[in-house]
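Recall that a protein's primary structure is simply its ordered list of amino acids. Everything else, from secondary elements to tertiary packing, is in principle encoded there. The following example makes that idea concrete.
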Amino acid sequence: MAMRSTGRHRSRARPPTDRAPRKPRQALLATLVVAALTAAAVIVARGGQAIWVCVPGALLVSSRCTSRLGAVGSSVAVVAAAGGASLVERHSTVPSQVLAPLLVTGASVAVLASLRERLERERDSARASARSDPLTGVANRRAMLERIYYEIARHSRTRRSFAVLVLDLDGFKLLNDRFGHLAGDDLLREVARAVQLAIRDQDTLARMGGDEFCVLAPETSAAGATTLAKRATEAVGRVTVGIETLGASAGVALFPVDGRTAAALLNAADQRLLEAKRRGRVSDRRAA
């Protein structure tokens, strides 16, 4: 199954929005709060050994800084707050030798919990980045291959079929040459959004590279695969309004009829994509 659509596209270059802004004000506020709490703890414990509570406090604030200078400055602020409080307050009735170990232990546990939470967030973010396309936000080639492997195993057990659709933009290089790569990136983002809205929630959309996308549709018959290709190409056609030479071609492969491995399915879909492109070129010449 192979399909092709054409349309027009008016490109609009937008600045990239995937940069995460730094928040120095939040780091400064966290440093002030920890310094104040450290000073209060030292005052309550009547100085002495309680000054060591500045160690976990300094580790906590420095771990939240994005630069070495910020980490050093934050640590110095906490240590200075603890030292100043130790010199000022020496009249508390709470025994320092009892409260100081409790404060240091509690603060150390808080630092450990904070660092663990941060590492888990960074780990989850790294995993998500490794499986998603940074430009469009959809899945990348690696994630798509993993999903195809999974669906092959699942559909082999249930003896049901699923579809793999390969979608390619026609005339994309011309748009890049004429309007620039920012306009091309803008178009790819719009195409990804349009196709994502056109497919089902259980389907997976991935950018395989360049202007090529892939859709995995579980529990899909031959008739459903034809409908999927039509919806996807029509979605691209609605986006590419502005230039006649820009359109989309699609090729669909069905498991297990067209292959029982990811490579075989993608190769079959690519072959039908090429057939659609050839038919499109013939139609264009006849129309001319």
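Confidence is low (pLDDT under 50) at residues 8-22. The first strand starts at residue 2 and ends at 7.
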